[in-house]
Amino acid sequence: MTGRLIAVVGPSGVGKDSVMTALAERRPSIELVRRVITRAPGLGGEDYTPVTEDRFAELLAADAFCLHWAAHGLLYGIPATVRDQLAGGTDLLVNLSRSVLPEMKRAFANSAILSLTATPETLARRLQGRGRETPDSIAKRLERSALGIPEGVPVIEISNDGSLDETVAAALNALYPVKV
Asked: What residue spans of the chain are helical by DSSP H?
């Protein structure tokens, strides 16, 4: 049986990485996809593979990514090796940009999209708390938070304004409903 690619999307500061980590801890059969990013190493948050823009271009030319995009002045890539993991039956969680969702749905038939939401106040507080962005960068990320999901792309929407446990429980119930 083919695994399912589960995209986790939402605005910066919504808690995608925290929710993904908690989901994988609560359901060990789910694995996290490690993104390749043109971000300096060791900036906290997610576990990613840092690369230079030149190296990213080399990887892109070598078809090393199944999905890629640019956002916030950075380049992001999803390793093509996820196809092998999915073929082996593993469900994978991946932090994706909302802009690449139509491409993901075309490339991966067995997929789902978990869209996390939070109030603007929650987003601003979390962005300031992670200490990675300047006030100007935070303002730009908050502006971008109003962007929606591309039309025609089905999503499972979960609010992450409450506790992490509540969010994870709601997400697991939506992704893996109990059949009676």
From this structure: 16-26, 53-61, 82-87, 101-107, 120-130, 135-144, 164-175
Residue 55: which CATH number? Answer: 3.40.50.300
The domain tally of the chain equals 1
Question: Per the domain annotation, does 180 fall within a domain?
Answer: no
- Identify whether the C-beta of residue 133 lies closer than 8 Å to the C-beta of residue 46: no
List the binding residues. Answer: 10-17
pTM: 0.85
pLDDT at 141: 72
Binding-site residues for ATP, please?
Answer: 10-17
Residue range of the domain that includes 25: 5-175
Tokens of 64: 């090393």
Residue 150 exposed, middle or buried by CB count within 10 Å (0-12, 13-18, 19+):
middle
Report which DSSP code applies to 91.
Answer: E
Rounded-to-10 torsion of CA 174, 112, 73, 161: -10
* pLDDT of 34 higher than 70: yes
